[in-house]
Amino acid sequence: MSVTEGTAGDWWKGAVVYQIYPRSFQDSNGDGVGDLRGILQRLDHLERLGVDVVWLSPIYRSPQADNGYDISDYQDIDPVFGTLADFDELLDEVHRRGMKLVMDLVVNHSSDEHPWFVESRSATDSPKRDWYWWRKAREGFEPGTPGAEPNNWESFFSGSVWQFDEASGEYYLHLFDRKQPDLNWENPEVRHAVYAMMRWWLDRGVDGFRMDVINLISKVLTLPDAEPLPGRTLANGAAHYTSGPRLHEFLQEMHREVFAGRDGLITVGETPGVSTEEAVLFTDPARGEVDMVFQFEHVGLDHGPATKFRPRRLEPGELAANLTRWQDALAETGWNSLYLENHDQARSVSRFGDDGEHWRASATALATMLHLQRGTPYVYQGQEIGMTNTPFASIDDFRDVESLNHYADDLDSGSSPAEALLGLASMSRDNARTPVQWDGSEQAGFTSGTPWIAVNPNSSRISVAAQDGDAHSVLAHYRALIALRHEHPVVATGSFTRVDAGDDAVFAFERAGADSGDGERMLVVANLSSDERVPSFTAAVFERWEDAEVLLTNLPGSEGSPDAAAPLAPWEAKVYLARD
């Protein structure tokens, strides 16, 4: 039975979520852009994979300045993806297969083409003027001139967060692109308009929301300057808009107004910059906010001191240590999302693994250590076949607004085109946005036309078709991991305890004490390096696991007990099961 059946309040603890980035998933009409009917064509793949929840990145009507995260109509489908009738058919088919469907909710900001903002900017005395953040120029400055911006915050997408509006002589706030003005959640009319829209989707049959940058909706009202970045006039203003003063009040109000009294839903809060202490507050069931957080700390470990586009190499054990810290912090209260990649992150096998000699082993080792922790795992489209970063040859190959803006800024700062491209090659969001590789044909089975962004040339060897039916493939391993979560309650609800393996590169942990289990214990041991490693377990650990069953391995022919003398091959992972 699928874990999504029934209405148990915490069914999502035993579930696996699959994220679809629609424009890159499957094109059904040959225009080069993925669409809803394309998703319909590939639902059997998701059913065979075994996932429980399908999360769609935005499909609402949008000018596509940020690939749909700039919404101009929250209650319609963008024509590039299809129609509301297509959506209803997709929703029915997802439900028929025993899966749930989650929408991406983007309400920190809208598009500047949304009727709300069009009305807001129409006049300074517009009834919707304070639905957004409007401010006059800095005192003593001529409006529209350099330095006149109301504060010195830098946008996530480079440049100032303020856009000058010549018609009114004022500025509006946009933490992201200038075409994504921030909604003013201080205005109760804004909040209740958002809640009404959310109820409309739930009444249509949607099973919940993944809430984009939801912890940015409450700002410090004075919008003060921040400490400038070294050598720059702009500053990181996150302290004044991340987890702001009324955030928990707003989320609790949303829960009461939208989710209370509805069974079987899932609510996910994307919360960049959140601490473990704050994550507990967000996800404590008694507080009525969200079911789980989607936090960023582990995917920021390799960021350079100035920018993510100057990444650093992680030390052995650094990723495992961070993941362990989050496991321990949320052990008693709260819930975490488990992920290594999504539409905003480069491909995990290229970033945290070894996409060369040990491509398959590292893709499956990373999956093993992630899926068997406490939390709800997420699979991003293509991750289940080990899709890698793309060898972009020039800036003309990129489509992402963040990447294009950074490249221009990098050149303005004195970097050469080669230096600027190097950072984009490893960290650009476009690495995750190339089309899903369904087969080895020219466009990887994604489209019969010209894709909106080029297909990774390695699709001739990495594809669903090449792996389907191969018992030793990355795809087969993902299917096995998802099945383990469904079959063994200890994976979903058991405790997490880190085990010292005597080597920082070896990530070992125990799962035990499942609420509804039968005394099952699970030991996961993963060599997260491209070198052979010899774990050194204590005698107590060895004794505890010497009679355990080898439940799953990622290397063909790998077997045995956790013997301190048994070496682990590069990126080897083993899962042991025992019963008390």
Automatic annotation (TrEMBL):
<dbReference type="InterPro" id="IPR006047">
    <property type="entry name" value="GH13_cat_dom"/>
</dbReference>
<keyword id="KW-0378">Hydrolase</keyword>
<feature type="domain" description="Glycosyl hydrolase family 13 catalytic">
    <location>
        <begin position="19"/>
        <end position="433"/>
    </location>
</feature>
<dbReference type="GO" id="GO:0004556">
    <property type="term" value="F:alpha-amylase activity"/>
</dbReference>
<protein>
    <submittedName>
        <fullName>Alpha-glucosidase</fullName>
    </submittedName>
</protein>
<keyword id="KW-0326">Glycosidase</keyword>
<dbReference type="InterPro" id="IPR017853">
    <property type="entry name" value="GH"/>
</dbReference>
<dbReference type="Pfam" id="PF00128">
    <property type="entry name" value="Alpha-amylase"/>
</dbReference>
<dbReference type="InterPro" id="IPR045857">
    <property type="entry name" value="O16G_dom_2"/>
</dbReference>
<dbReference type="GO" id="GO:0009313">
    <property type="term" value="P:oligosaccharide catabolic process"/>
</dbReference>
<comment type="similarity">
    <text>Belongs to the glycosyl hydrolase 13 family.</text>
</comment>
<dbReference type="InterPro" id="IPR013780">
    <property type="entry name" value="Glyco_hydro_b"/>
</dbReference>
